[in-house]
Design a protein that fits this description.
The protein is mainly beta. Helices cover about 10% and strands about 30% of the residues. Strands 1-2-5 form a 3-stranded antiparallel sheet, with no helix packed on it. Strands 3-4 form a two-stranded antiparallel sheet. It is globular.
Amino acid sequence: MSRLVTHRGGCHCGAVRFEVDAPARLDDVIECNCSICRMTGFLHLIVPAARFRLLRGADVLTEYTFNTGVA
């Protein structure tokens, strides 16, 4: 595995902010097919919990269910 660096991100509205430690070059991202991610070009990166840090917004997190709630 290549050297890990800190990447920063957050939610669409900016209320949630986080950091993850991941390789500088992100080759293992996933393209989501939902309408929001498709329109904005967002890519998803799955990391182990130990490499994720929630910086703010824990109080506004909720469970998201898309359309039918199946996915």
